[in-house]
Structure formats: structure tokens, C-alpha cells
Design brief:
Ig-like_fold; 4 helices; DLEC1; Immunoglobulin-like; 335 residues; six-stranded mixed β-sheet; mainly beta; Deleted in lung and esophageal cancer 1; tubulin binding; 20 strands; 6% helix; four-stranded antiparallel β-sheet
Length: 335
């Protein structure tokens, strides 16, 4: 909304008046409007106004995080230190949507890579870069436009199952493609190279989530520790990040001719989550009660008790004590 702080009044002779115009928005995009100024019987003066809004209205709810600096970015999601080849660790994150639009997020996980021979990435998509999918990960095809299925599907289209047909029936009509011509295209995107995919290390489930307007949704972020080689003696830092590419399935929310336009996918700034964890080899220190190892020495005469009249012993048990110490900051299992 565009709001003039002084909307009407009286101007005296040779008087000058400055009027402040404020722009309010809780959603990214470009906005156009006209301010009409009427003076007496003169023809109205039309003042066009334009505003560009950037940013992401999706925020994560972190109960353990507090800061007084509003400009400070969101903290890193940490998974602690894990044992090499250990079990998967999962964090639950709630996403809040403060905008009046349903926003779909398609998540991709990366690991930063700094190489001089890789500066840019050339991405080619046949159809939408992030098509609407069902819970099984299959592309949803609009039943009203079966002939446009080839342009709406991914490069490796899969057969539409019964569950996907049910999901189509429950989806909004606006999620289907009404303009066949605008959807039949091959998009080429050139972007800066920053990282490589890291699905084997960090994974987000579900990869596609819709955060309702004024509501919230939850996602699971899991970390699977890698297996370190025998020559690695210290812990290894595993830094990654997740990008949530924003899309609007409602065509009216994407563009209202002459009034607003909202980019999506790669054209809109994605939601970024920084991820960090450490992996270290399992290590236990062993302290023996005898130096040089555990050795058991017995003689045949040890089977003769102090009172020989009771007879020779059939067995003799000797015990050595071994002390195991865990000097790391993580619990470890041994056998």
C-alpha cells in the first residue's frame, strides 16, 4: 500500500508543502500504483509510483535463539560432533509465513566449494524448474490439460499414480497451468557457482513444502556422518547450507497486470539455512594394570591348593583389569 501522510489540505499563496509517501509491503515483488492529485476544477494530476520489495517472509522458529540486533542473520543450525559412520541426526524446524500468500519452498542442500576453475553454473530446465509434486515426489499433472503434460513434467517424467490423481483433485484450481503457451519453454539460468549438492551429507524432508499464508509448516533436517579414513586423527568440520527456492502456485498472486508482479524460483532470492557439524573418529584410550599388554601365565603347580588334602583343582581363574576412557565430547559404543 502507498500512503500519503497528508491526503488533503489548503495551500496558501506562494506556499510550498512537502508530502511524505510511505510504502508498506509484507511480500516481495514489484508494485505500481497512481496517486491522483485534484486541485479545484483543474484536471486531475496523475503521479505514478513504483516500489520494489525484496526479502523472504519465511522465518524459522528457534526457541533457543535470541538477539537484540534485528539485522543479525539467522544462526547456524548445528548438529554437534558425531562419530565417524554413526547414526543419522535429525533436527526439526518450524517455518512461519508472515505474508498473505501461500508460499511453496523447494529445498536443495549444498556444500560450499571454492575453486578458481569454477565460477558460474549453467542450468537448463525443460518446463518449470520446480514443478509441483505429490508426497511420493512425482510431478503433478493437470487433468484439464493432458496435452501439456510433456512441457510441465521434469526431464525424467514418471507415470502418474492413483495417489497423484487424488492429490490433483484436492489441489487448488490455481495450481494447475491455465496458460499452456507460457508453460511450454526451455529455461536457461546462469548463476554464480557457490557449492556442490550435498544430499548424501545433509537432507531435508519433505523437499517440497507449502507454508500457508499466516501459518506455519515443519521440516526435518538430517545429517549423516561420513566415514573417515584411518589416517584422520582429528575431527573434521562439515559445513553446508540449504536453499529454499520460493514459488507461488496462484497465478493471481504472481502477477496482477499493471499493479504487481512477483518473480519466483531462481529469480527470487531463496531462503538460506546455514548448517554445521563435526565428524571425528571413534577413539577410546585403554589403561592396563600390567605394562606391555595383557598376558596370562599359569603353571601346573597353580592347580595344587594350599591344602593338598582337598585334591587338585579342576580349573583356575585369573583376572586382569582393563580401564577404558572416553576423552571425546560424544558418547561412543564399544564391544
Amino acid at each position: 500500500a502507498f500512503f500519503p501522510h497528508i491526503s488533503q489540505g489548503m495551500l496558501g499563496a506562494h506556499q510550498q508543502l512537502s508530502i511524505d509517501i510511505a510504502g508498506y509491503a509484507n511480500m516481495w515483488g514489484e508494485y505500481w500504483d497512481n496517486l491522483i492529485c485534484t486541485v479545484g476544477d483543474l484536471p486531475p494530476a496523475v503521479i505514478p509510483v513504483h516500489m520494489a520489495v525484496v526479502g523472504c517472509p519465511i522465518s524459522s522458529q528457534r526457541t533457543t535463539y535470541y538477539t537484540t540486533d534485528q539485522l543479525q542473520k539467522e544462526p547456524v543450525i548445528r548438529f554437534g560432533t558425531q562419530v565417524s559412520g554413526g547414526d543419522t541426526v535429525t533436527r526439526i524446524l518450524r517455518l512461519n509465513n508472515s505474508s498473505p500468500c501461500d508460499i511453496r519452498l523447494d529445498w536443495e542442500t549444498y556444500m560450499p566449494e571454492d575453486r578458481e576453475d569454477r565460477l558460474v553454473e549453467l542450468l537448463v530446465f525443460y518446463g518449470p524448474p520446480f514443478p509441483l509434486r505429490d508426497q511420493a515426489g512425482n510431478d503433478l499433472l493437470c487433468p484439464e490439460t493432458p496435452e501439456s503434460s510433456s512441457s510441465f513434467s521434469s526431464p525424467s517424467p514418471s507415470n502418474t499414480s492413483d495417489s497423484s490423481h487424488e492429490a490433483v483433485q484436492t489441489a487448488k484450481d490455481s495450481s494447475c497451468v491455465s496458460n499452456k503457451v507460457s508453460q511450454k519453454f526451455i529455461s536457461v539460468i546462469l548463476r554464480e557457482h557457490d557449492g556442490v549438492p550435498a544430499d548424501h551429507l545433509y537432507c531435508i524432508s519433505p523437499k517440497q513444502v507449502v507454508v500457508p499464508a499466516g501459518g506455519s509448516s515443519t521440516i526435518s533436517i538430517s545429517f549423516t556422518p561420513m566415514v573417515l579414513g584411518p589416517d584422520v586423527l582429528h575431527k573434521v568440520e562439515c559445513v553446508g547450507y540449504a536453499l529454499g527456492f520460493m514459488s507461488l502456485d496462484d497465478e493471481v498472486e504472481r502477477e496482477l497486470l499493471g499493479r504487481r508482479r512477483r518473480l519466483q524460483d531462481f529469480a527470487a532470492g531463496p531462503r538460506k539455512l546455514d548448517l554445521c557439524s563435526y565428524v571425528r573418529p571413534a577413539q577410546l584410550s585403554m589403561e592396563l594394570d600390567y605394562g606391555g599388554g595383557v598376558e596370562f601365565w599359569h603353571q601346573a603347580s597353580d592347580l595344587i591348593p594350599e591344602q593338598p588334602c582337598t585334591g587338585v583343582l579342576s580349573e583356575l581363574v585369573t583376572t586382569h583389569h582393563v580401564k577404558l576412557s572416553n576423552t571425546t565430547e560424544i558418547p561412543q559404543y564399544f564391544r
